[in-house]
Each structure stands twice: as C-alpha cells, then as structure tokens.
Amino acid sequence: MTVEAKREENELIFKVAGRVDSSTALLLEKEIKDRLETDVTEISMDFSMLDYISSAGLRVLLTTQKIMNKRKGKLIIRNATGIVQEIFKITGFSTILTIV
To answer: Class for domain 2-99, per CATH?
Structure first.
C-alpha cells in the first residue's frame, strides 16, 4: 500500500494505492491521524488505485467517519474501483459512507 497525502485549505486529500488489509491498515490509520489537525473539516480518500480493502481497512474508515461526524465534517470516498465498491455494498458500508 502507498499513501499520498496533501492538504488544501480545510481538506485533507489521500490517494491510496494497493491493498488495505490487516498488515497495512494501521499504517493508513497513522497517516490519517498524523495529519488530522483540529481545523480539518473534510477528508477525501481517492481509491482509484486501491485493489482491495479488508475488514481492518473498513474499521479505519469507520473510525475516521466517526471522528468527522463529531466535528460536523465529512469523509468522502472518491473513485472507488469496482471490487472496492462491491466490498462496500456487501458489507453495508455503501449506506454509511459518502461514496462519489
């Protein structure tokens, strides 16, 4: 897994490539938490290069969604690949995440 991150005003933008699974989910979580300053109101996750996300990766997204809900902010999943969209649908995450 690789993660590119940048900040534009109050938005954090992450581009995640490869696989988010039990061996990489903690690295993604650390990347998010290390960059999540108090004035961030939106997180965008570009999954156009993401091949797979496991339950460990879903947990990271759920935790991030809860943090953003408390801030009255947004977590947006962008450009999810077909397999990742299918995983979101099967697990019910497509109903709790904002996926565009």
So the answer is: alpha beta
| Residues 9-36: tens digit of each pLDDT | 999 999 999 999 999 999 999 999 999 9
Structure tokens at 38: 């108090």
- Confidence class for position 88, pLDDT limits 50, 70, 90: very high
pTM value is 0.93
What is the torsional sign of CA 60, 86, 3, 76? negative
Crossing angle of helices 55-70 and 82-91, in 10° steps, is 70
User: Cβ distance 77 to 47 under 8 Å?
Assistant: yes
**42: Cα within 13 Å, side-chain hemisphere:** 12
Domain ranges of the chain: 2-99
Side chain identity, residue 12: L
Angle 56-62-66 from CA coordinates, rounded to 5°: 145
Q: Give CA separation, 2 vs 61, 68, 98, in Å.
A: 16, 23, 22
